[in-house]
Design goal:
Structural class: mainly alpha
Shape: elongated
Number of strands: 0
Order of helices and strands: HHHHHHHHHHHH
Strand content: under 5%
Distance between the termini: 41 Å
Oligomer: single chain
Radius of gyration: 21 Å
Number of helices: 12
């Protein structure tokens, strides 16, 4: 009997992190502007839940489910590769602009393309969704064309600023109409579609966490807009490369905020509960 329990525990350890990794591989984006979070957060959550699995399943039955929910949520929001995809072309553009002298905009645009194109090819080769890859590449092309058209290097970041405005508005609207975008995204990635909306507690938790994601877009705008108006191109590129910070905070706090709305004994985000009629 002891050996049987050990085998089941070992099997559970192998299966749960594997499921989380597959969920994380399904998506490399969150929000309209395609920001990505760090997969280490998902790995850390999976590691913590699996390390304590053997004893917690026997002592406190509901705890592994909560840990699995935290791991699943972090994995669904994961994908650190997108951080370089987002920041790399921007840093390359500014480097080319600084070093290019009178033809700085042309050099900057060429440098951005030189980074974005091979990265896009590599993402396609490694199995990333073609639509997501091409959308990211198109964003770099449009940003460079805007800067070349206006003759102002700071305008390379204009599309980024506009996308953050739209993202903040869409997230707020989704909360107002009680279709929180975090629930929509996580539900799709977990194969639940809209089943989570039948669970009032889970739906309330997703609304709470969606406010956090809305706030991080507003924080970005509070940083980007003054720098853009002051024509601080280098500072804009640095700020662009640090957008992983608010995303990481959102990933870390999303599950605690969702969990704060769930009653004791709730099985977590994988198992929405339908209230009795």
């Amino acid at each position: 009997m002891v050996l049987g329990d050990t085998d089941k525990t070992a099997a559970a350890r192998r299966e749960r992190p594997g499921l989380d990794c597959r969920l994380g591989a399904c998506t490399g984006w969150l929000g309209l502007d395609g920001r990505c979070a760090m997969r280490e957060l998902a790995d850390a959550s999976a590691s913590r839940s699996s390390d304590g699995l053997g004893h917690s399943e026997r002592m406190v039955p509901e705890q592994p489910e909560q840990d699995a929910s935290a791991s699943s949520l972090a994995a669904v929001l994961g994908g650190r590769a997108g951080l370089f995809d987002a920041a790399g072309p921007s840093m390359a553009f500014v480097a080319g602009w600084v070093c290019g002298g009178r033809n700085g905009l042309l050099w900057g645009a060429g440098a951005a393309f030189a980074v974005a194109v091979p990265v896009a090819g590599y993402r396609l080769w490694t199995g990333r969704r073609p639509a997501a890859v091409l959308l990211g590449l198109l964003g770099v092309v449009l940003a460079a064309l805007i800067a070349l058209r206006t003759g102002r290097a700071a305008d390379f970041f204009l599309l980024q600023i506009a996308s953050n405005v739209v993202s903040a508005l869409v997230w707020m609207l989704s909360i107002a109409v009680r279709w929180p975008l975090l629930g929509v995204i996580v539900g799709l990635m977990l194969g639940q579609r809209t089943k989570w909306r039948t669970d009032p507690d889970l739906s309330r938790g997703y609304r709470r966490a969606s406010w956090l994601w809305t706030a991080q877009y507003l924080i970005r705008l509070a940083v980007f807009v003054p720098l853009y108006r002051a024509d601080q191109v280098v500072a804009l590129a640095i700020a662009r490369s640090l957008t992983w910070v608010p995303v990481a905070v959102c990933v870390l706090l999303s599950w605690p905020l969702v969990r704060s709305a769930l009653p004791p004994g709730h099985p977590g985000i994988r198992h929405p509960q339908i209230p009795p009629r």
